[in-house]
Amino acid sequence: MQELNTKQQKKNNLSKQEVIFKGFNKKILPLLQKAADITLKHEKIKQCQISFTMISDQDIKKMNRKYRKVNRITDVISFLVSKELFMGDIYISTNRPKQNAKKYGFTHEQELCYLIIHGILHLEGYTDYDVENKSLMFSKQDKIFKCLFS
Question: Which of helix, strand or coil describes residue 43?
Answer without folding.
Answer: coil
